[in-house]
């Protein structure tokens, strides 16, 4: 018997603290999967993210301890989980009846699943050996990076005219969909206080869930009388183009860290969450950018020094970042998942 129509349940979280990274990367994967319908199950989805969940057949917001029961009751054929607060305790009853595909970045908790993916730059599969069930298959490293393939097609930048002072650098500032640490606001305050627009052009992208947007808009309006070198955008549906139009960036580690590396966009990188601890060591080990501590972000002197340092090493950072990614991560993930779905459909 062949089952022609398969349904997928996705479990994740997107909100003011966790941001939209998990939601965005799953959205990028879905078009590659051989499923007819996909429903979203979450313990938190901010109301202002409704436009980003429109491609799901239904969205169910439930307490964390109710998600597994809801998925099992839905009749879903398989489950995709991208959620830092979910481990084997929730996965086990699901995996007893369904294929379970887990996306993780941390290797810090047990999992009970069919497949597990971790796209960390230095992550090795053996990190999960004591954490997963005996039958789980684990795929790690940037070969499975869930990044927009368009990023690798951005033409290489020429930094020579910038380094010779023949052109003013364009700097992109973005701290993701929600920016819980007010990174955009702190950066803009440093730009304002230090009059850094005299040395750089700045584009600030406030994500769809950024609670500081009204404040940012007011600050930019005040500054417009002094300079036209600061542009503020509210959300951006085409980040590859935004990356291509800039020379340097300021932003967080996490999902956008990989995006900038794949795009060859050197960045001043800021740790904004516990799950990003250690990323600065990866950045330094591979010479991928310049690290700046969050408590120094609002300092004009610190931001100016970090950008100046970044400009000096920009060619190396861009080359090293692009060498890590080939743009085939989504296809590789989808091939692994689709194989399991095809087996399921054939039963």
Structure overview:
The radius of gyration is 21 Å and the shape is globular. It is α/β, with parallel strands linked by helices and 347 residues long. 44% of the residues are buried. The chain has helices at 21-29, 67-74, 88-95, 160-163, 183-194, 213-223, 239-244, 255-263, 279-286, 300-323, 329-345, and strands at residues 7-14, 37-45, 58-61, 78-82, 100-103, 115-118, 137-140, 170-174, 201-206, 230-234, 248-252, 267-270, 289-291. The protein folds into two domains: 7-147 and 327-345, 3-Layer(aba) Sandwich (Rossmann fold); 150-323, 3-Layer(aba) Sandwich (Rossmann fold), CATH 3.40.50.2000. It has a seven-stranded parallel sheet, sandwiched between helices. β8 (170-174), α5 and β9 form a beta-alpha-beta unit. It contains eleven helices and 13 strands. The termini are close together. The model has no long low-confidence stretch (mean pLDDT 95). Helix content is 33%, strand content 19%.
């Amino acid at each position: 018997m062949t089952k022609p129509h398969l349904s997928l349940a996705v479990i994740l979280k997107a909100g003011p603290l966790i941001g939209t990274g998990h939601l965005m990367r799953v959205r990028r994967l879905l078009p590659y999967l051989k499923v007819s319908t996909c429903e979203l199950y979450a313990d938190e989805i901010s109301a202002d993210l409704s436009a980003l969940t429109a491609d799901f057949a239904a969205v169910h917001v439930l307490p964390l301890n109710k998600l597994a029961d809801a998925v099992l009751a839905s009749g879903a054929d398989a489950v995709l989980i991208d959620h830092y607060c979910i481990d084997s305790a929730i996965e086990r009853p699901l995996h007893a009846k369904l294929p379970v595909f887990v996306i993780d970045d941390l290797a810090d908790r047990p999992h009970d699943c069919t497949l597990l993916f971790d796209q960390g730059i230095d992550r090795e599969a053996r990190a999960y050996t004591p954490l997963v069930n005996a039958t789980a298959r684990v795929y790690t490293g940037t070969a499975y990076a869930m990044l927009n393939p368009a990023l690798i097609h951005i033409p290489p930048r020429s930094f020579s005219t910038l380094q010779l002072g023949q052109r003013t650098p364009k700097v992109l500032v973005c701290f993701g969909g929600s920016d819980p640490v007010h990174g955009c606001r702190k950066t803009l305050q440093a730009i304002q206080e230090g009059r850094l627009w005299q040395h750089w052009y700045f584009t600030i992208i406030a994500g769809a869930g950024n609670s500081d947007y009204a404040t940012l808009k007011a600050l930019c309006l005040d500054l417009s009388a002094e300079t036209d070198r600061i542009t503020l955008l509210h959300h951006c549906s085409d980040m590859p183009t935004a990356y291509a139009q800039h020379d340097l960036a300021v932003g967080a580690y996490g999902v956008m860290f990989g995006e900038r590396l794949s795009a060859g966009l050197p960045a001043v990188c800021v740790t904004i969450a516990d799950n990003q601890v250690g990323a600065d060591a990866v950045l330094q080990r591979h010479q991928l950018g310049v690290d700046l501590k969050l408590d120094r972000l609002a300092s004009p002197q610190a931001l100016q020094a970090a950008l100046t340092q970044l400009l000096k090493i920009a060619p190396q950072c861009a080359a090293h970042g692009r060498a890590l990614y080939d743009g085939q991560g989504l296809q590789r993930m989808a091939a692994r998942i689709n194989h399991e779905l095809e087996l399921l459909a054939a039963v």
